[in-house]
Predict the 3D structure of the following.
Amino acid sequence: MGKSKRRKSPKSSSRPYPSHKPATHSNEASSTARASARPAPSPTIPFDPSHRILLVGEGNFSFAHSLLVHHACTSLLATCLDKQSGLVQKYPQAAAHISSLEDEEEVKVLYAVDATRLQKEGKKVRKGGFDRVVFNFPHVGGLTKDVNRQVRHNQVGFFRSATPLLAPGGSIVLTVFEGEPYDLWNVRDLARHTGLKVGRSFKFQADAYPGYEHARTIGNIRGGGGWKGEERAARTYILEIKDGQEVQMTMDKRKRGDSDEDTDEDD
């Protein structure tokens, strides 16, 4: 809240205040200087060099590269939905990032990985092996224009696919833009229906990951496009297992052929 204006003292016939220099200016200037000198809040970074991290839905791999180079996270499995040939066509800058990642012994890159069907990767994606499973700015694709239906299909599918891959105490890290239509996704409710809970959430600060560039699903835009994703307001949600046994039961049912269009009841 801004500082309320101080009412000007009534003029004295003997010692009037100069009309060109109100008495409150020096105090207001000092207050402004103190405010500008306050350090910006430190960004929240939910990663540690000791973490085993699975990244899904990578675009140009700049986020994975920043984790490696600037945050010393060396145990990474970075994946994308695109095939290798199509990826480099969409994001030419990805080639350098991938080359740098693959130079590290404990870093692996996989292509054509569906975030909603991670179990199909078999031994490449180890069950119970990750401290963090990360999905930044998931894009809701599909043929239908019903956004709610697509969100339910894709994000619930991702949560169920990722949960069995978490190590004890591990968590899913999901980052989405703020504002519509993303606020309509109701991440907390989606999590609740899959045996998860939001442990905490916080503002995503792209500049905490030097070199990171938001990748649009359609690929690079000639001339840079009309907006930059890293400049838009976004929020990160940390999702934790609420009841591990319940989540595993849900996965077992899906393996027996249950439809993705489930009718989970509220807890």
Observations:
- The chain is about 25% helix and 20% strand.
